[in-house]
Amino acid sequence: MANTTSNRADQSNAPASDEPKYRFNLAKWIIIFVFSVTGFIGVVAIVMATVFYNEKSFGSVKDILGILLPVLSAWAGAVIAFYFGRENFESGTKSSAALVKQLTSEEKLKSILIKDVMINVAKAVTFTLDKPEKDIKLKSDLIDAKLEKENKERLPILDPQGRIKYMAHRSLFDKFIVQETAKGKNPVDLTLQDMLNDDKFKDVLTGSFKTLPETSNLAEAKTLMDKIKICSDVFATEDGTVNSKVLGWVTNIIVGEQSRV
Q: What is the pLDDT of residues 123-147, one digit of tens each?
């Protein structure tokens, strides 16, 4: 067992292969050789044509150039095409793979109905507005009695008919309490109505969720979440609107988990 571990460690510490470096150097020197020889032949041809010019020598030089230059050009072209073509191919392959993965993820979400993965509201931790918001204490009624007791981070707040009224996250409560405590207020006395009196927090409580029919798919839920920055919950209701009873809901976490391929 110790030998096996040692072998693995030796393998992990082994130097990387020199093949890429060798191929790069080979390509570099081939290109240098090709351009050097081409330049040399060109100079010789000019000298020959200038100093020893006659029809026969000129024809010979032209024939030699006609034979050698295509061969040298083919070498250089093959090397350049190999390296630059391979990089373009690898880049294209990565882009195609990313696109396929994205399409596959989208298709997967389209195939999953909200009702099949939603949190059943009958079994979830929720709060029903059985008294006015001004009488609902943030700390004792919502945080301690619901979130702390059940170890939850999200709390749907429903009206007596079971319709979604507000959606609150523990982080939102904490942020508001810190803000008001800094103003000298007692956290124990803060109410839900106090939060609603602050437009910034009211917008989140009332605008951080959307509704859909339970027969909608997760792709539709994700589209709603993507359109609205603060939206991370989509509720399934009887008729798909905010005016009907909640059946369940999906969170941005559920959508993210289900989108994995």
A: 999 999 999 999 999 999 999 999 9
Q: Are 147 and 177 in contact (CB under 8 A)?
A: no
Residues in the chain: 261
Residue 122's domain comprises 114-258
Strands 233-237 and 209-213: parallel
pLDDT score at 131? 95
Residue 168 covered by a domain = yes
Tell whether 156 and 251 lie within a shared domain: yes
CB under 8 Å to 187, separation ≥6 — which residues? 138, 139, 177, 180, 181
- Indicate whether 58 and 22 sit together in one domain: yes
72, part of any domain: yes
Residues 81 and 193 in one domain: no
Flag whether 106 is in a domain: no
Calculate mean pLDDT across residues 66-82. 68
Q: How crowded is residue 146: how many other Cβ atoms within 10 Å of its Cβ?
A: 17
Asked whether residue 92 carries a pLDDT value surpassing 70, the answer given is no
Instruction: With residue 80 as reference, give the H or E element that holds it.
Output: helix 55-110
- Name which of 206, 192, 188, 215 is nearest 132 in CA terms: 192
